[in-house]
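Field notebook, page 346. I keep forgetting to write these up properly, so this time I am using the form the group agreed on. The chain and the ligand, S-adenosylmethionine, are recorded exactly as supplied. Prediction of the bound pose follows.
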Amino acid sequence: MDVKKIIAKALSEQTLTEDEIVAVLSTTDKELLDELFCSAREARTKYFGNKIFLYGFVYFSTWCRNNCSFCYYRSSNQNTIRYRKSGAEVRKIARELAASGVHLLDLTMGEDPQYHQENFTGVLELVEQIREDNHLPIMISPGVVSNELIERFIACGVDFYALYQETYNRDLFKNLRLHQSFDERMNAKIYARSKGMHIEEGLMTGLGETVEDLAAALLAMGQLDASQLRVMTFVPQNGTPLEKMEPQNHDMELKIIAMIRLLYPEVLIPASLDVEGLAGLTSRIMAGSNVVTSIIPPASGLAGVAQSTMDVDDGSRTVAGVTPHLESMGLRIATVDEYKDWLATH
Ligand code: SAM
Ligand code: MD0
Ligand code: SF4
């Protein structure tokens, strides 16, 4: 297949077949990859100009009842960083992030048994307080929750529900998200979208999936009407069954970012600082991302997910840390109103 033609076809916004996506994701030719990333940037510019959005990340509880095989915070990992931040601490951190210039606050937790036991009362209170304090859009990443809870999140003003399937290969899903239901996870985000919430879907790469799996997933993700689509390269974690897995290079992640941009040019696509830290920002933005995620205030006692500590305490994972890199690519940080306008019109 002529990959150059496929890229041009995607850039002109014609739909691609699964085979065509496989051909693009399989390419290792440097010139074709330059063409792919350049086309992805062109598509981004068409819909977003030179604007970039920034998300503050608040991982407020790392307790989790689940035992996902890829995750540092899986319940059976005894050596992980466990904490549950108090309401006052989280409010302080959220205010700091808001003052630093982020456009959204992503409140993330493990499936903390304590919050589940109290039917999320503490989390809902926290969301209300943070909304009052900051007037910023809020994303919640609580794992799978009931439809009733989704409605309560909407009622207290949460804008975004992040819930990543990781893979659309059901056999692989079973080995990653142990004892969890593929359909429940899928249906929760579909329900949230049907009730008018913005949703984020995501894939992980480097876990033994095939290029065909990835291509099929990319097409299926398009059916969700998600506002944000992400991919992260798997980072092996100490104390987990996959700790010895060979770390992958990030080429596939970059190709997928560009492919998402070409298939769904209007969506938000993270360049996550949680995979390679600040060093990985430029390549992801140059592949077509338009949101920097996983911004964490230094010395806040908060962890990342895939990179629990990398670049946190030296202040690299901050607005000040990323700004010069974005500016040197000719990009500018959007205003909060520009971000709110985007959400209001999608
Ligand atoms: N507990 C909730 C859940 O699992 O949906 C919220 C946390 S969620 C934001 C954690 C996400 O980080 C996972 O869905 C996965 O995509 C990503 N992640 C976790 N461990 C990772 C790892 N070792 N390498 C790369 N990405 C990882
Ligand atoms: C990130 N560490 O954006 C965060 C996390 C949860 N919604 C996002 C994976 O990379
Ligand atoms: Fe828990 Fe989420 Fe980690 Fe799975 S990915 S173990 S649900 S924190």
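OBSERVATIONS:
- The pocket of 5-amino-D-isoleucine (ligand 2) is lined by residues 57, 106, 108, 141, 162, 270, 272, 274, 293-294, 304-305 (CB under 6 Å).
- The chain has a mean pLDDT of 98.
FOLLOW-UP: compare against the apo run.
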